[in-house]
TrEMBL record, chain A:
<dbReference type="InterPro" id="IPR040357">
    <property type="entry name" value="Vma22/CCDC115"/>
</dbReference>
<feature type="region of interest" description="Disordered">
    <location>
        <begin position="87"/>
        <end position="117"/>
    </location>
</feature>
<feature type="compositionally biased region" description="Basic and acidic residues">
    <location>
        <begin position="87"/>
        <end position="96"/>
    </location>
</feature>
<dbReference type="Pfam" id="PF21730">
    <property type="entry name" value="Vma22_CCDC115"/>
</dbReference>
<dbReference type="GO" id="GO:0070072">
    <property type="term" value="P:vacuolar proton-transporting V-type ATPase complex assembly"/>
</dbReference>
<protein>
    <recommendedName>
        <fullName>Vacuolar ATPase assembly protein VMA22</fullName>
    </recommendedName>
</protein>
<dbReference type="GO" id="GO:0051082">
    <property type="term" value="F:unfolded protein binding"/>
</dbReference>
TrEMBL record, chain B:
<comment type="similarity">
    <text>Belongs to the V-ATPase F subunit family.</text>
</comment>
<dbReference type="InterPro" id="IPR005772">
    <property type="entry name" value="ATPase_V1-cplx_fsu_euk"/>
</dbReference>
<dbReference type="GO" id="GO:0033180">
    <property type="term" value="C:proton-transporting V-type ATPase, V1 domain"/>
</dbReference>
<comment type="subunit">
    <text>V-ATPase is a heteromultimeric enzyme made up of two complexes: the ATP-hydrolytic V1 complex and the proton translocation V0 complex.</text>
</comment>
<dbReference type="GO" id="GO:0046961">
    <property type="term" value="F:proton-transporting ATPase activity, rotational mechanism"/>
</dbReference>
<keyword id="KW-0813">Transport</keyword>
<dbReference type="InterPro" id="IPR008218">
    <property type="entry name" value="ATPase_V1-cplx_f_g_su"/>
</dbReference>
<comment type="function">
    <text>Subunit of the V1 complex of vacuolar(H+)-ATPase (V-ATPase), a multisubunit enzyme composed of a peripheral complex (V1) that hydrolyzes ATP and a membrane integral complex (V0) that translocates protons. V-ATPase is responsible for acidifying and maintaining the pH of intracellular compartments.</text>
</comment>
<protein>
    <recommendedName>
        <fullName>V-type proton ATPase subunit F</fullName>
    </recommendedName>
</protein>
Length: 175, 147
C-alpha cells in the first residue's frame, strides 16, 4: 500500500493508522499494570511499593537491540538479559549430561543474571505485584514495536520529502 | 555496552517508573546516573528538561547549556544525566502529561535514536492529537489521503 511517486517509488501511507491502532493497544496492558500495582500497594502498604524500595544498584534485565532494516530505518527488539539456551541449563559436570557430546568441558561460571526487581519489595511478594511486572514487561515489547513504527514514519517522511523535491525539479516550470 | 544492547529510559510519575523498573529496565550505573526520573509534585520543569534534552540543540533560554560557565567535571556530570546525550539509550518513555511540559524539547528532537514515546499515565489518558510524532505524520498528508 502506498502512494506512487516519481516512476513507481512507493511511500507507505498506512503508518499513522497503524500507529494509532498499536497505541490504543498499548493503553490496555498499562492499565492492568497500574491496577495490579494499586492492589499490591493495598496489600503491602501505601509506602511499600515506590521509590523508597528501589535498589541502590541496578542492572537492566531487558535491553534493546536496534537493527537497521533498510538504509536509515531502525527496528527495535527487546531482549532479556541472562536468558540461557536450553543446553546450558542443568549441571555443568562433564560426563553427567552429554547434551553437546562427550568432549564438552565444563564452562566457567558465567556472570550472574541481573537481580529480579521483585526482590526489592521483599522475599514474599503478593501475586498482584508479579502480575504488575508481567503487564509492564508486555508493555516494553509493545513500546519497542511502537518505536519501530515511529522510526518508520520518520523514515517515510524523509523519503517523501526527497521524492517531492525531485518531483518539483522535474516539473516543466521548475527551472 | 555494544554486546548488551541499548537501554530504555523512562520519565514518568511514580507508578509508571515503578512499573517499568519492575519490568527490568532500570540501570543505576557506577557514576550513579539512572536511566529513569520520577516526576513528583515538586519536580521542576527545568529538571525534567535537563534530564531529557540534548545540549545545544535548543535555542536560548536554559542557562546551564553553556559549557563555558561550568567546571569540566560538573559539565560531564550534567552531560551524563541527559538521556538524549547518552548513546546507550535507545528509547525514552515519557508520560504524555509530562511531555506537554517540555513539548518544545520533544519537538526539537528529530533523531531516530533515541526514539521518544509518549505514553499515558494512570490519571492522564493518551491523546493522539498531542503526540509530536503523530502531529508530524499528519502534516504529511491531506484529509483526503487519510480517509
Amino acid at each position: 500500500m502506498g502512494t506512487p511517486l516519481d516512476g513507481g517509488s512507493r511511500v507507505p501511507i498506512g503508518c499513522p493508522a497503524k500507529l494509532r491502532r498499536v497505541t490504543r493497544k498499548k493503553v490496555a496492558p498499562d492499565l492492568e499494570g497500574w491496577l495490579s500495582l494499586a492492589k499490591a500497594r493495598y496489600a503491602m502498604g501505601a509506602k511499600s511499593v515506590g521509590p523508597l524500595q528501589y535498589a541502590s544498584h541496578m542492572e537492566p534485565q531487558v535491553c534493546l537491540h536496534a537493527s537497521e532494516a533498510q538504509e536509515g530505518l531502525q527496528k527495535f527488539k527487546v531482549v532479556r538479559a541472562g536468558v540461557h539456551a536450553p543446553e546450558e541449563v542443568g549441571t555443568r559436570e562433564a560426563g553427567l549430561r552429554r547434551r553437546k557430546g562427550p568432549t564438552k568441558t565444563p564452562e566457567p561460571e558465567s556472570s550472574e543474571a541481573p537481580q529480579d526487581p521483585l526482590n526489592w519489595f521483599g522475599i514474599l511478594v503478593p501475586h498482584s505485584l508479579r502480575q504488575a511486572q508481567a503487564s509492564f514487561r508486555d508493555g516494553l515489547q509493545l513500546a519497542a514495536d511502537i518505536a519501530s513504527l515511529q522510526n518508520r514514519i520518520d523514515w517515510g517522511r524523509s523519503q517523501l520529502r526527497g521524492l517531492q523535491e525531485k518531483l518539483k525539479q522535474l516539473e516543466p516550470g521548475a527551472a | 555496552m555494544a554486546g548488551r544492547g541499548k537501554l530504555i529510559a523512562v520519565i514518568g510519575d511514580e507508578d509508571t517508573v515503578t512499573g517499568f523498573l519492575l519490568g527490568g529496565i532500570g540501570e543505576l550505573n557506577k557514576n550513579r546516573h539512572p536511566n529513569f526520573l520520577v516526576v513528583e509534585k515538586d519536580t521542576t520543569i527545568n529538571e525534567i528538561e535537563d534530564t531529557f534534552r540534548s545540549l545545544g540543540s535548543l535555542p536560548g533560554s536554559v542557562v546551564e547549556a553553556n559549557p563555558n560557565q561550568c567546571d569540566p567535571p560538573l559539565w560531564d556530570e550534567i552531560d551524563s544525566r541527559q538521556f538524549l546525550n547518552r548513546d546507550d539509550i535507545g528509547i525514552i518513555l515519557i508520560n504524555q502529561y509530562i511531555a506537554e511540559m517540555v513539548r518544545h524539547a520533544l519537538d526539537a528532537h528529530q533523531q531516530s535514536i533515541p526514539a521518544v514515546l509518549e505514553i499515558p499515565s494512570k490519571e492522564h489518558p493518551y491523546d493522539a492529537a498531542k503526540d509530536s510524532i503523530l502531529r508530524r505524520a499528519r502534516g504529511m498528508f491531506t484529509a483526503e489521503d487519510l480517509r
